[in-house]
UniProtKB/TrEMBL annotation:
Tree of life domain: Eukaryota
Alphabetized UniProt keyword annotations: Coiled coil
Pfam families documented for this protein: Aldo_ket_red (PF00248)
Protein name: 11-endoperoxide prostaglandin H2 reductase (Prostaglandin F2-alpha synthase)
Native source organism of the sequence: Durusdinium trenchii
Database matches in SUPFAM superfamilies: NAD(P)-linked oxidoreductase
Domain NADP-dependent oxidoreductase: 60-310
Coiled-coil regions, chain positions: 351-386
Gene3D superfamilies: NADP-dependent oxidoreductase domain (3.20.20.100)
PANTHER family (UniProt xref): 2,5-DIKETO-D-GLUCONIC ACID REDUCTASE, ALDO_KETO REDUCTASE FAMILY PROTEIN
InterPro entries in UniProt: AKR (IPR020471), NAD(P)_OxRdtase_dom_sf (IPR036812), NADP_OxRdtase_dom (IPR023210)
Length: 465
């Protein structure tokens, strides 16, 4: 951190510590006031949900993201910024009082500009932003990320600051740093995003203070009952990221039927379900008509309709890179940065393919080794067999030479090429007795044919010794 930044930080901390009580009381009173003059929606839009440390969050939020980018490549960054400024202005004039953004999106200044153009007092608006994931690498980066957001939002205290994802890792180091910054007055309330129940439990068992908010993908089609029950048990507010499932489930489930029954859109029904469950949905749009539609005002879901939606949970994931992070083991994120394959499906598929290739190579190598071993055993066996055969042929040669003379010895050498020693011995004894192979018994001829083959057998049968 530079010397100028350090002086700036010390001065701001002094000002904040001196004025914190007064400013917070004024801010809280303004959050509890009646709707602004430009509001055109019903009373439920103004309901506040208290956090553990006293901040009152508006129950309906406005998601911003980053217009353009990969989902809208035809929209330039500057056009996206202008669209976002207009959308924030429309949302605030419609009645929204919670705006969600992030430092990574690069749109914090656009949110401030939208608030300014709306004419709504800044003290009436709660702004939530997030820590850069790369800032988890060091304490200096954490401070720098908070500093940048404070500068972009033009404020001395961030209303709600979220740890963006567990996949950034090193939670045991980063979370206490954010707690200290909150205690110094630079952050109003702390929360997390995309954390699962086992990760939150890991924080609790490690002695860390639990977050006040968990921003996670929860909607009609992904209700996460175990996680939301954990939230209720430990005083954590559920903030619904992508409450419309990005529109990917519209027209496919019971929500469409309920929307027809009520004469509403599926988007309005999905937001209303979140509101009646006690969650904080943050729908996102840049179109004025949809911004108004997403307030889900003027109607309520009946008990039976809520039950029908409750039975419709299909665990559908719309945020395919962010939401899987809630499944990363606590041990992988507590003190280190987890491997990308634990949460990125494409990376996971690559790792699995590499493992399959490695297993295939190992199997091939194992089979090749077995074949080589079999060949060596066969060679050794063959060599042993040939050695035994040679020794027996030598003994028979001596015997034949003694009893039958040189003629029989030549024939023996010919036979020994084709017959095992026992067969050679049998034929020699018969030959010495009868004089010709043509006089062998029928059984011996059959044995000879099997052992020698037809052509050689015929030659030997018709040859006189």
């Amino acid at each position: 951190m530079s010397r100028e930044s350090s002086k700036y930080l010390k001065h701001r901390r002094f000002v904040v510590s001196a004025c914190l009580v007064v400013s917070s009381s004024i801010s809280r009173r303004s959050l509890c006031t009646s709707p602004p003059k430009n509001a055109s929606t019903g009373g439920r839009l103004w309901q506040r949900i208290p956090l553990r440390r006293g901040l009152l969050l508006p129950q309906l939020g406005f998601g911003t993201g980053r217009p353009g980018g990969s989902r809208e490549p035809q929209v330039t960054l500057e056009d996206g910024r202008r669209r976002l400024v207009a959308a924030v202005k429309t949302a605030l004039r419609t009645g929204y009082r919670l705006v969600d953004t992030s430092l990574f999106s690069g749109m914090e200044t656009a949110v401030v500009e939208g608030i300014r153009q709306s004419g709504v007092e800044r003290s009436e608006v709660v702004v939530a932003t997030k820590l850069l994931q790369m800032a988890h690498n060091s304490s200096e980066a954490v401070h720098a990320s908070v500093e940048n957001s404070l500068r972009n939002l033009n404020c001395s205290c961030i209303d709600l600051y979220l740890l963006q994802s567990p996949r950034a890792g090193r939670i045991l180091d980063v979370w206490p740093q954010l707690i200290r910054l909150r205690n110094e007055g630079l952050i109003g309330a702390l929360g997390v995003s995309n954390f699962g129940a086992h990760q939150l439990e890991g924080m609790r068992q490690s002695g860390l203070e639990l977050p006040e908010v968990n921003q996670v993908e929860v909607h009609c089609w992904r209700q996460l009952p175990a996680l939301t029950e954990y939230h209720r048990t430990h005083g954590i507010v559920t903030m619904c990221m992508a409450p419309l499932a990005r529109g990917e489930m519209f027209g496919k489930t019971e929500v469409a039927t309920i929307a027809q029954e009520l004469g509403q859109t599926e988007a309005a029904v999905a937001v209303r379900w979140c509101l009646q469950m006690g969650y904080i949905p943050i729908p996102r749009s840049v179109r004025s008509s949809r911004i108004l539609e997403n307030t889900a005002s003027g109607f309520e879901l009946s008990v039976s309709q809520m039950e029908r939606i409750g039975r419709m949970n299909v665990a559908y994931v719309a945020c395919r890179k962010a939401s899987p992070c809630c499944e990363i083991p606590w041990e992988a994120i507590a003190e280190s940065i987890p491997d990308k394959s634990l949460w990125d499906e494409s990376k996971k598929r690559k790792v699995e393919a590499a493992e399959r290739r490695s297993q295939l190579q190992e199997e091939r190598a194992r089979k090749a080794l077995e074949r080589k071993q079999q060949q060596i055993r066969a060679q050794v066996s063959s060599q042993n067999s040939q050695s035994r055969r040679k020794s027996e042929i030598v003994i028979l040669s001596e015997l034949v030479q003694q009893q039958m003379g040189e003629r029989y010895l030549r024939k023996l050498n010919f036979w020994s090429t084709w017959l095992p020693p026992m067969a050679v011995r049998s034929r020699l004894h018969r030959a010495s007795a009868d004089g010709h192979y043509a006089r062998l018994s029928e059984a011996q001829q059959q044995l000879q044919l099997v052992s020698l083959g037809p052509e050689l057998s015929h030659e030997l049968l018709t040859t006189e010794l």
